[in-house]
Specification:
The complex is a heterodimer.
Chain A: H1 13-18, E1 24-33, E2 36-46, E3 51-55, H2 62-69, E4 77-82, E5 85-87, H3 92-98, E6 100-103, H4 115-119, E7 126-127, E8 130-131, H5 133-147, H6 162-173, E9 180-184, H7 192-207, E10 211-215, H8 219-225, E11 228-233, E12 236-242, H9 248-256, E13 274-282, E14 290-297, E15 301-306, H10 312-320, E16 327-332, E17 335-337, H11 342-348, E18 350-353, H12 357-361, H13 368-373, H14 390-403, H15 420-430, E19 438-442, H16 450-465, E20 469-473, H17 477-483, E21 486-491, E22 494-500, H18 506-511
Parallel strand pairs in A: 3-10, 3-11, 6-9, 9-10, 15-20, 15-21, 18-19, 19-20
Antiparallel strand pairs in A: 1-2, 1-4, 4-5, 7-8, 11-12, 13-14, 13-16, 16-17, 21-22
Chain B: H1 2-26, H2 29-43, H3 50-59, H4 61-75, H5 83-104, H6 109-137, H7 142-161, H8 171-178, E1 181-182, E2 185-186, H9 187-205, H10 207-217, H11 219-224, H12 229-255, H13 266-276, H14 288-307, H15 312-339
Antiparallel strand pairs in B: 1-2
Helix pairs in contact in B: 1-15, 2-14, 3-14, 4-9, 4-12, 4-13, 4-14, 5-6, 5-7, 5-12, 6-7, 6-12, 8-12, 9-10, 10-12, 13-14, 13-15
The chains are: A alpha/beta, B mainly alpha.
Chain lengths: 519, 342
């Protein structure tokens, strides 16, 4: 690996490992966002030559922590110590120059540029102010080769697959020779083969004394490459444990702060008539649905599990009329729906609550009241179809705020000023503004604290017991395992498996996450 | 003990926050209004008189009507640069039709006025239909769409008139809609008040008004809640142009001629009026009452500068500066919204 451009400041692996102080340490690191403390008094340490897993729910503060370590974000208070010395990371470039490189979940690639151009973005090799394209291409080739990535540096990034783009993102981190590498769910879009490749690379780096911070939700990965695990919950440090010896149940317990099962209500299972019946659904475009079929009945909670891009959200969106359909049969309450339209499906009694509340769900600059009533403005009692009934709107939304325990309970407050959990409540409340027969919850607990989670689960269970059909789309495995009566596992736009009752186990569900891999 | 010390610690904090809170709640307009009134009162003795303030009202009525329409476009997250052209097209088409109708049947004055007004407003509104179709159905950015229509409309207005004013409208039209008054208040003011009341009801008492806010607040959320976002956008641009057309007809009555050159300053002034009044350029935020105040404020500043004998070229400098100041204030306000947790 000597052909990689090496930073003279970096301590060699042996030295760093034998030295007393850890490679990277934080003391009381805190980050405040308006209305929310994203990270509180975090003490974290990374030794050289270890893979340190960050483990926690969505919104637990992992991303906040790594974004500060990578220089993309600045702490409100607290210290970051690198090689025993306090450092101020003003930007990603500063951090990178020190030897801290990060690969974030969201790509920071410019699609119209080539692989090599992206890798050297902001650090282009120049001579007398002019770009040295050949030099850049040569260096890029060297880095890609050393990582064993089969990519051509001259290809445009938008012509690459998602996995290949992920590889470019990783290669970017190796432009300088990092002593700390941060990987944020790097395998989320990689195939098995590519994942193995990545693990080999990680092991190689470990030997060289690089400290690796690794975020993942997958137990198998934790076992395979992890050395230590630090658990975060609600922006707080919980514990650091050994990766090889700590049991899964213990980890989940640390992560959620409760014994497994405690936050999930027991749901009486009494399935009634079929509400939604879908056969052989296809959607256009790459990565679309490829012949998915499913049935949802009244009085049951049906889970949709699968990886990002497995089509689990698209399935519901297509049935709801917010995503185009190529072919397939959809029957809703016994009536065939040829081409669903959102407005019409709402009228029929189908409600879809999107996963991304910021971009698809809420009007952040409008009051809570308007956000709750949004989907029922043409319906009694909120209006007679021509004029709004402001009093009724106030009453209905206030009642719902009470029922969902909105905090603070002020319906005129702007949606954007509420915390994540309470924003979620605003959206959930929408499903109660009129009677719905089918309610689809798409990732209802993303970025929601544990307390609110329990409230949301209870809310879903209650809706179900009152006779609604519930479709729960979730990437959060415990949710699928403990809340659903039946579960489908989707993979690449197809239903891989269906489980009911006690068959919904982690092993069963996970086994179908990756099946039929094309290597 | 602890309770009282808590209170005393909390209250000075709140007092220090008060201007900030007022700014967040009301925007920059009240502050500017106070400054303007104080400055112009010192600069001219005639400024703060009932007669002059009524003058301000009369002079800014056209801008007020156009701004109310502009606000709708801004609420959806777009804007309409073609409001000035809409005024011109309305004026030219309305005047030509009215003159022709009057010439054909000199006895039916009211019929001629009616036909003229209808033709003018229809022609102006047609520009809004084009804007709306482009923005809602073809996804053209409001900037490009309305900029294009500005050129199209202006070209048509010049082509129809050859650049000369259109004469021949019945005297009654100007007498009533331009210079007429009832109880000491001019006709255009009544028209503006009626439009404002109707628009208020539409925006705040019907679901359709809420749809406009929803489309600007979050288009995707609106669509997922069953709101027809395209129809809402189309209708918004039609209403915006409709308002501008009414202003165009009133201005035609005031000038007694159809002119292709009127309204050039309307796009800037109407957007400035809205932004000063706290309408967000990102859509979804803004109140009708404030926009009316914003338009009156711009009229007030123009009037004050006239009385203070500030040259008209410099006046446009001030106006542009105010617009930019308002946008900056909007940005700062957004930051404050984030920092004030309640």
């Amino acid at each position: 690996m000597t052909h990689l451009a090496s930073e003279p400041t970096r301590a060699t692996g042996e030295d760093a490992r034998s030295s007393a102080h850890p490679l990277l340490r934080t003391e009381g690191l805190t980050k405040d966002y308006p209305g929310i403390r994203a990270l509180s008094e975090m003490n974290f340490e990374l030794r050289s030559g270890e893979v340190h897993i960050l483990f926690g729910e969505n919104g637990a503060g992992k991303s906040t922590l790594i974004s500060m370590l990578a220089g993309a974000n600045h702490p409100t208070s607290g210290k970051i110590l690198f090689d025993g010395e306090e450092v101020h990371l003003g930007s990603v470039h500063e951090a990178r120059d020190l030897g801290i490189s990060a690969v974030f979940q969201e790509f920071s690639l410019i699609p119209q540029m080539t692989v090599a151009e992206n890798m050297f973005l902001g650090a282009e090799p120049t001579q007398a102010g002019f770009l040295r394209s050949k030099e850049q291409k040569r260096k890029a080739e060297e880095i890609l080769k050393s990582l064993d990535f089969h990519l051509k540096p001259g290809r445009r990034v938008d012509h690459l697959t998602r996995a290949e783009q992920q590889m470019v993102e990783i290669a970017k981190a190796f432009r300088t020779d990092p002593s700390v590498l941060i990987l944020d769910e790097p395998t989320a879009s990689l195939t098995n083969h590519e994942t193995e490749q990545l693990f080999k690379l990680v092991n190689k780096l470990k030997q060289r004394g690089v400290g690796i911070i690794y975020i993942t939700h997958r137990m198998a990965e934790i076992r395979e490459i992890g050395d230590r695990i630090t658990i975060l919950r609600d922006g707080r440090y919980i514990d650091t444990v050994d990766a090889k010896t700590t049991s899964e149940d213990r980890l989940v317990e640390l992560m959620t702060g409760r014994v497994v099962g405690q936050i999930f209500p027991a749901v009486a299972y009494s399935p009634g008539e079929t509400i939604l019946e879908v056969e052989d659904l296809h959607t256009p475009g790459a990565g679309g649905l490829n012949g998915a079929s499913a049935v949802v009945r009244r009085g049951e909670i049906v889970g949709f599990a699968g990886l990002v891009g497995s089509g689990k959200s698209k399935f519901a969106q297509a049935c709801f009329g917010s995503f185009p359909i190529e072919s397939g049969h959809i029957r809703f309450k016994g009536q065939t729906v040829l081409s669903p339209k959102t407005r019409e499906m709402l009228k029929r009694g189908f409600m879809y609550l999107p996963s991304d509340r910021r971009s698809d769900g809420l009007m952040m600059m409008r009051p809570a009241r308007e956000n709750i009533s949004l989907a029922s403005l043409m319906n009694s009692p909120l209006s007679n179809g021509l004029f709004l009934n402001i009093k009724a709107e106030n009453r209905v939304t206030s009642d719902l705020a009470d029922r969902l325990n909105l905090s603070p309970r002020r319906i005129e407050r702007l949606a954007g000023q509420f915390s994540g959990g309470n924003q979620q409540k605003l959206m959930l409340a929408r499903s109660l503004t009129r009677e719905f027969d089918l309610i689809v919850f798409d990732e209802p607990t993303v970025g929601v604290d544990v307390g609110t989670r329990a409230a949301i689960y209870e809310f879903i269970a209650e809706l179900c017991e009152n006779g609604a059909a519930i479709l729960l789309i979730s990437s959060d495995l415990p949710e699928i395992l403990h809340l659903t009566n039946r579960a489908y596992v989707l993979y690449k736009g197809e239903v891989q498996a269906e489980f009911a009752g006690d068959d919904i186990t982690e092993a069963n569900v996970l086994a179908h996450f990756f099946e039929r891999e094309e290597v | 003990m602890t309770v009282s010390s808590d209170n005393s610690a909390a209250s000075p904090m709140n007092w220090a926050d008060l201007p900030k809170r007022l700014f967040v709640r009301l925007g920059i307009l009240p502050f500017l209004l106070v400054i303007a009134v104080v400055v112009f009162t010192f600069m001219s003795d005639n400024f703060l008189t009932g007669r002059n303030l009524l003058n301000v009202l009369r002079q800014s009525v056209f801008l007020t009507i156009v701004s109310m329409g502009q606000m709708l476009a801004l609420l959806t997250g777009g804007f309409d640069l073609s409001v000035g052209t809409t005024l011109a097209v309305t004026s030219v088409v309305g005047a030509m039709t009215m003159a022709a109708a009057y010439a054909a049947m000199p006895d039916a004055v009211w019929l001629a006025i009616l036909i003229g007004c209808f033709a003018g407003i229809a022609a102006g509104t047609l520009i809004g239909v084009c804007n709306g179709v482009g923005v809602a159905f073809f996804g053209v950015s409001p900037f490009m769409m309305s900029l294009g229509m500005t050129s199209v409309g202006f070209g048509i207005a010049l082509f129809l008139t050859g650049g000369t004013p259109v004469y021949g409208m019945p005297q009654t039209f100007g007498d009533i809609f331009g210079f007429g008054s009832f109880l000491g208040i001019h006709t255009p003011i009544y028209v503006a008040v009626i439009l404002a009341i109707l628009l208020f009801i539409y925006l705040y008492r019907t679901p359709f008004g809420r749809f406009i806010y929803a489309v600007g607040g979050n288009t995707k959320a609106a669509a997922l809640s069953g709101i027809n976002t395209r129809a809402t956008l189309l209708w918004t641009y039609i209403m915006c142009a409709g308002m501008a057309s009414v202003a165009g007809m009133l201005l035609t009555a005031r000038l007694d001629t159809g002119e292709a050159n009127i309204g050039a300053s309307m796009p800037l002034e109407s957007i400035a009026a809205c932004v000063i009044a706290g309408v967000s350029l990102r859509g979804g935020v803004g109140r009708l009452e404030n926009v009316i105040l914003g338009a009156l404020f711009i009229g007030l500043v123009q009037n004050g500068m006239n009385l203070a004998r500030i040259e008209s070229y410099l006046q446009t400098v001030v106006l542009g500066g105010l617009l930019i100041l308002a946008v900056i204030a909007d940005q700062i306000r957004l930051r404050y919204v984030a920092s004030l947790k309640d």
